[in-house]
């Protein structure tokens, strides 16, 4: 149990210093906050708080001639201060039909607890009848103080803390969408696109249904298809490469820089030369059969490929070396699709991601730095023609009207509800980016003093990561397993992103790559793991994480 929902009698206890109860009530709330919990007020009880507190103030001061009107004004002033560090729980329509209950207002509050994970919250009350009727859901201040309250657990990504920051705006936006009913490409979608474009410094933003669909739509807009080669990294999530194969094109993998984990420009140039000139001495795209594979899988890369575009991935939130990559793209006449699913808002040489390519893509998956409460994505470009094609592609290739189809497209629209959720998150995003950077800097300081055996992330000069993930390299695979196990025992979550490079995934077996083809990516995959990272990570939590690491290296 972490959180408390307050009964009216508890609010009045504290706000009026009502003896003898206010001391335990106030101490219970303070204990909850000290342990990382949240104290909730029910918005449907606002008038009851005001009226009941005013009655108590009037009763206490009646002999002094204080009027009820003055008591009411005093109650409002006290409540305004009391509510400053509390969280408001919206009164939902489904909690309104409670008139069959003996005490309708208490029944509303009990029903509101169903919105929280089981066991994470209790109703703090002095009402003996309610305590007796709902023993598993309620607690008195005295009993709460006697119980052991567990410390706040460390979250890998703390979406609840972020939600607390913007709950009123989130609830308002969601209800607005429910009332206007424009669930597909509603006004919030257009508003979000305009604000995202302004934030990133792009001429056009086209929202879509997911980060994966953003990549797919980009390739479709560039007319990528069978016979085309698309160059990308093997050290990323499978979505980056499976969209290439989905269109019949061929993913050509390129090894990574050992410090940034991003696409290595030197090896990229070598890969393009290998495809262009048929000289595979400097890149593992040989046509020779792999004796360890069945004959049916020895098709390898087609004999003739047309280099078409590059998809650099800003892994863990760090931008790629776009000066070098764009120079290579210009040299060979290739397009660049920036996979900025993890780096929205990162800085590259003074400009924000994802505006470094012909098209930039990002994701609003919930765990991303700027995430929704479901799938969503967006594309960014300064090219008017590409923007028009992307808008057409996301609605089944639509032309001038709904039933005018001018190209192959897909159902790639972003839900209006998701746009309504991302909008208030975008409002606080600059501050959250700064908090992520402060957390990363503190991790760096702590790890720098603990052990040189663990390699912290590297950020080149002129760049700022969005710190989607804070990923370190252990000395080896066994050391990684040991550290992850030790952290898990202390209740600290870690995740491996990504433990098996794409060129070794079964889905890409027919490309014929082998173990050892991309040694840097393979080495990083065998040693990397990510520590908790989010804007609301406290220094004490990071100190605990690093203490466990220090004790197990």
Polypeptide structure, described:
The longest helix has 33 residues, at 416-448. The protein is α/β, with parallel strands linked by helices. Helix 10 (211-221) crosses helix 14, helix 15 (416-448) crosses helix 18 (539-552) and helix 16 crosses helix 18 (539-552). Strands 6-14-13-10-9-7-8 form a 7-stranded mixed sheet, sandwiched between helices. Strands 3-2-1-4-5 form a 5-stranded parallel sheet. Mean pLDDT is 92; it is low at 286-291 and 293-299. 42% of the residues lie in helices and 12% in strands.
Name the descriptors.
553 residues; alpha/beta; Rossmann fold; Aspartate Aminotransferase, domain 2; Aspartate Aminotransferase, domain 1; 7-stranded mixed β-sheet; 5-stranded parallel β-sheet; 42% helix
In short:
By secondary structure, the protein is an alpha/beta fold.
Per CATH, the class of the largest domain reads Alpha Beta
Named at the architecture level, the CATH assignment of the largest domain is 3-Layer(aba) Sandwich
* Overall helicity: 40-55%
Ends apart, CA distance between termini = 33 Å
Overall geometry comes to elongated
| Assembly state | single chain
Structure annotation, total helices: 18
Query: What is the count of distinct domains?
Result: 3
Return the CATH topology of the largest domain. Answer: Aspartate Aminotransferase, domain 2
Low-confidence stretches: 286-291, 293-299
What's the number of extended β-strand segments?
Answer: 17
CATH homologous superfamily annotation of the largest domain: Type I PLP-dependent aspartate aminotransferase-like (Major domain)
Strand content: 5-15%
């Amino acid at each position: 149990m972490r959180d408390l929902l307050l009964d009216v009698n508890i609010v009045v206890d504290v706000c009026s210093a009502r003896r003898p109860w206010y001391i335990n009530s106030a101490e219970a709330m303070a204990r909850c906050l000290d342990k990382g919990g949240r104290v909730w007020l029910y918005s449907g009880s606002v008038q009851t708080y005001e009226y009941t507190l005013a009655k108590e103030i009037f009763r206490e001061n009646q002999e002094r001639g204080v009027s009820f009107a003055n008591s009411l004004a005093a109650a409002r002033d006290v409540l305004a201060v009391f509510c400053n560090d509390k969280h408001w729980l919206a009164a939902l329509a489904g909690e309104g039909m409670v008139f069959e209950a003996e005490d309708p207002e208490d029944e509303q509050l009990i029903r509101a607890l169903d919105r929280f994970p089981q066991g994470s919250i209790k109703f703090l009350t002095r009402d003996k009848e309610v305590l007796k009727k709902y023993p598993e859901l309620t607690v008195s201040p005295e009993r709460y103080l006697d119980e052991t309250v567990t410390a706040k657990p460390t979250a890998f990504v703390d979406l609840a803390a972020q939600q607390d920051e913007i709950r009123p705006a989130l609830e308002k936006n969601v209800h607005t969408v429910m009332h206007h009913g424009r669930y597909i490409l509603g006004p919030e979608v257009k508003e979000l696109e305009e604000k995202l474009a302004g934030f990133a410094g792009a001429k056009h933003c086209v929202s879509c249904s997911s980060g994966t669909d953003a990549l797919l739509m980009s390739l479709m807009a560039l007319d990528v298809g069978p016979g085309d080669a698309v160059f990308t990294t093997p050290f990323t999530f499978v979505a980056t490469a499976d969209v290439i194969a989905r269109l019949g094109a061929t993913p050509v993998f390129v090894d990574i820089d050992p410090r940034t984990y991003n696409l290595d420009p030197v090896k990229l140039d070598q890969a393009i030369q290998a495809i262009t000139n048929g000289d595979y001495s400097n890149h593992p795209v040989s046509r020779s059969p792999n004796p360890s594979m069945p004959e049916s899988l020895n098709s390898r890369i087609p004999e003739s490929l047309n280099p078409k575009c590059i998809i650099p991935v800003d892994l863990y939130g760090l931008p790629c070396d776009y000066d070098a990559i764009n120079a290579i793209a210009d040299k060979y006449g290739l397009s660049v699709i920036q996979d900025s699913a993890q780096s929205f808002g990162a800085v590259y040489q003074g400009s924000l991601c994802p505006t470094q390519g012909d098209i930039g893509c990002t994701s609003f998956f919930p765990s991303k730095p700027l995430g929704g409460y479901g799938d969503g994505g967006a594309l960014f470009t300064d090219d008017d023609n590409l923007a028009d094609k992307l808008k057409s592609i996301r609605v089944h290739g639509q032309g001038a009207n709904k039933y005018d189809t001018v190209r192959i497209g897909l159902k790639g629209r972003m839900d209006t509800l998701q746009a309504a959720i991302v909008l208030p998150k975008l409002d606080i995003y600059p501050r959250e980016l700064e908090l992520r950077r402060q957390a990363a800097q503190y991790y760096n300081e702590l790890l720098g003093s603990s052990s040189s055996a663990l390699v912290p992330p590297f950020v080149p000069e002129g760049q700022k990561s969005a710190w989607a993930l804070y990923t370190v390299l252990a000395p080896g695979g066994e050391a990684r397993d040991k550290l992850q196990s030790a952290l898990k025992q202390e209740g600290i979550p870690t995740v491996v992103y990504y433990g098996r490079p794409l060129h070794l995934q079964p889905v890409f077996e027919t490309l014929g790559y082998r173990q050892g083809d991309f040694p840097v990516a393979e080495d990083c995959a065998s040693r990397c793991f990510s520590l908790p990272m989010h804007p609301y990570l406290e220094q004490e939590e990071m100190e605990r994480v690093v203490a466990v690491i220090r004790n197990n290296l």
